[in-house]
Amino acid sequence: MIGGIISEANSRPFQVALLLRVGVNGEQGFCGGALVHAEWVLTAAHCCFHNDQQVDNVQAVLGAHSLYDRYENGRRIVNVAEVIPHPDFVPDTFANDIALLKLANTIQLTGVTFVSPTLREKLMTVMTDPLCNTSYFGQLPANTVCGYSGLAGTCKGDNGGPLTIVYNATEETILIGVASFVGAGGCSDDVPSVFTRVQRYLTWISDVTGIVID
């Protein structure tokens, strides 16, 4: 993330860091994700591919505040058993940029309902689709939501990470977006960050995972 503030430890227990590669010796990539069930992580579909090959060696880092602190209290690394990109994902346009990862082990879930190594966060304004589309010259994919802050934006490693809101009536944290992309310049606070709109994919998520979504 460009800008933003360092998150308080344990303030975002649903946040997941993903280590992804093709095979054992492939180049390692980094993405974010959100724990949405005891054995399921939601992330971006483009995180699941490297050089047109689907990654098959993925680990989810849970409970981490600093990505580089291997001995951090509460940190846990869980292997991913199955990688499921959305079947209609289009790499060239980032359409349907959403994926599900099934964890090899069931873990305890806390929190979410439905270029710093330290976890950071930033308040963003959710933009209207027409206004955001203007920033992307009319090329914004369908089923997206944009967040903007003049002082911060998503960057490398943030892709797949969650955009959340707090529902004041219940104080629940609700996942509304999965970080997809920013403008061609990348890592910019001058253009909106684009997120896949989770609400549009609830039926697919339920069909794949068996999770009953109210």
From TrEMBL:
It comes from the Eukaryota. Pfam families: Trypsin. InterPro entries: CLIP_Serine_Protease, Peptidase_S1_PA, Peptidase_S1_PA_chymotrypsin, Peptidase_S1A, Trypsin_dom, TRYPSIN_HIS. SMART domains: Tryp_SPc. Residues 1-210 form the Peptidase S1 domain. CDD domains: Tryp_SPc. PROSITE patterns: TRYPSIN_DOM, TRYPSIN_HIS. One of its GO terms (biological process) is proteolysis. One of its GO terms (molecular function) is serine-type endopeptidase activity. Keywords: Disulfide bond. This is Trypsin. It comes from Papilio machaon.
